[in-house]
Amino acid sequence: MSRRRHSDENDGGQAHKRRRTSEPIEIEDRLESLICRVGEKSTSSLESNLEGLAGVLEADLPNYKNKILRILCAVARLLPEKLTVYTTLVGLLNARNYNFGGEFVEAMIRQLKETLKNNLYNEAVYLVRFLSDLVNCHVIAAPSMVAMFENFVSVTQEEDVPQVRSDWFVYVVLSCLPWVGKELYEKKDVEMDRLLSQIEGYLKRRVKTHVQMLQVWTAEKPHPQEEYLDCLWAQIQKLKKDRWQERHILRPYIAFDSVLCEALQHNLPPFTPPGHMPDAQYPMPRVVFRMFDYTDAPEGPVMPGSHSVERFVIEENLHCIIKTHWKERKTCAAQLLSYPGKNKIPLNYHIVEVIFGELFQLPTPPHIDVLYTTLLIELCKLQPGSLPQVLAQATEMLYMRLDTMNTTCIDRYGKPILYIYCLRNNFHQHFLLFFPYSRLINWFSHHLSNFQFRWSWDDWADCLTVDLEKPKPKFVKEVLEKSMRLSYHQRIVDIVPPTFSVLIPAEPIFIYKYLDETASTLPGYQLSITLGNAIKNRATNEEILTILKEVPNPNQEDDDDEGESFNPLKIDVFLQTLLHLAAKSFSHSFSALAKFHEILKTLADSDEGKLHTLKVIYEVWRNHPQMIAVLVDKMIRTQIVDCAAVANWLFSQDMAHEFTRLYIWEILHSTIRKMNKHVQKIQKELEEAKDKLEKQQLKRRDSGDDEDMDKNSEDEDGQLEEQIERLQEKVESAQSEQKNLFLVIFQRFIMLLTEHLVRCETGSVDISTPWYKNCVDRLQQIFLMHHVTIQQYMGTLENLLFTAELDHHILAVYQQFCALQL
Questions:
Q1: Cα 540 from chain centroid (whole Å)
Q2: Domains in the chain and their CATH numbers?
Q3: Which region among 238-247, 377-386, 451-460 has the lowest average model confidence (pLDDT)?
Q4: Beta carbons within 10 angstroms of residue 764's beta carbon
Q5: Model-level pTM?
Q6: Does the pLDDT of residue 10 top 60, yes or no?
Q7: Mean pLDDT of the chain, nearest integer
Q8: Which residues, in sequence order, are bridge partners of residue 683?
């Protein structure tokens, strides 16, 4: 809920008018504040606060009914963690004013239809849950709620609709039952049995090929990674077996039962789920993240089992709190630790599991990664005596399970380990000194830089006794690589034990092959000296090109006088010399690329030229991955190289030994995002031009312009139509490039994986090597992170690449992706 801000500017001498007009606004603001803050900490009981607020709102209904309706509908959608507080408030108002209760129900149904129309499915879940809890408050009649649920479940009988559509409607019904199941079963047991039977039938025939792609861990022990609907169904089954008794939902309406039971109830208007639309964006399925069970919390309250409905309710409420308060880390942390009934559960374990669950959610977390860092820091500051120990336990679990963790999650994993160490050593006062990165490896390394890079590295010595391509040593290596970006090479050497030397990155120095006279026998050596002097003397582009004409072409035949073929030596000499002179900093390198942009574009005109340009970048900066990443990024932006060339280079044989390095995938995903943004930008320009033309024609028809104006308008229309035609061509061209980029990437993946599988089959070797697992995880990551774009080209991918003849190990990844949107 937003608060209005009022200004006294430009009011002139109208003070008395301002006072009169601002009084209703002040009252509206007061009503909004009262409603939004009910249920927060107070010297009075929640029940007395609700009764008092109901009296205030009832008195204001004659003048502010619409405002009160809007606020209550908004909090139902935006503050789901206080759901039962607001349903009780609505129940009290309905008991006092039956007509208002009816209008509120109608407003909620209108809002539900609007949220579904706008693809706001998460908010729609909260609205339906709110309506269901109104049954407990005697606002809505139970039969009409059951009828709505039956309509929702009927979606599972629709033909030719995505499975995710049916999944969502089934999830909505199941997720409401912890709140209202008991009331509905007491009054409509036959109908509820039939409803649950239909849901069970649907769940049995669901396709679950997608599950493997969404699991954080490949191993099912110690905690199974269950698909979310299967897990919720098991929880509801247990709830039904326990006669719908649950003990963790705050139910303030029980205190007002004598008042609420006397109220007249409303029937929900018939609600038919809106039909499937091709542009509907249903929530993706997910896997329930599990880290702890009752054995991990040996002291204090027992953690509910994974199939206990209390586990679902607690986790759902904690997710809601994070969703509501994620922009204010301190408020969010305080709200999490103030969870109602916290003395009955091991709250710290639940909070840590929920935060890690969101952080590791595939394909991306619900919120920006830095939220989880700052939130955990605030939680540790608020609970310094207990929460750090839980995090230490969680951290140990994560590190020990790296071997079975999805590579995408390992990219994110790292930061919590550090501040556990810092809290153990009383360094928590430094936690405000942080800088956000998008992945947990980045966070961990950056936090190390804030804490003098102190860490008990010897505790991780086990990573030195295994293959260096396995997850643990690779994780440590990447952390040290990122740490070096935030410090300097010698610093990392000094803080890491000598035994870790094999994992310490090389010193990030420029490697210039024409550096001294020992390179005098190399082709182009003399020209590199001439070229270097010319650049130092501020030679023009024409003068540089004249020098470059003297570079012999190793690809050119002696009798070939045209000299138009690709010349790798020319690129080698120029780019090595230029970057050597500009190696001092990023800024120097950017300036050099900008100054000689035209020459670079000329040299890299062909596909071979682009690939060789990237090859030279790697050769000179192979010990400085960050410089490689930023230079490649700059070259794409300035169109010296294109996205397809970058993809081909990353998958080339020259880069095979770097294939599993994190920076390679940072470059690839950055390249894909640039391509996608380019297409979106042109599409937006095209849509804007079409809208402008349509508005112009509509305006002319409505105004009835004279002849002269008609002629001018026709000229303007003609110009717009030409612009639209040009933009249409640009969109088609950009989409063709985009499709080609994905074809290149997936084709290269298929080639690499096929070669590996054939090699293993020929040598009778197990295919599941660390490289193979990494490659498959990266293929899944491409599909997941760019699924919206890739879906546009699925027909082409199926016809050209992911055919039935493809090896089933590779085809399985594509089938898992397709199952996400079945």
A1: 47
A2: 26-263 (1.25.40.180), 309-451 (1.25.40.180), 517-553+565-622+624-658 (1.25.40.180), 670-701+714-819 (1.25.40.180)
A3: 451-460
A4: 6
A5: 0.84
A6: no
A7: 87
A8: none
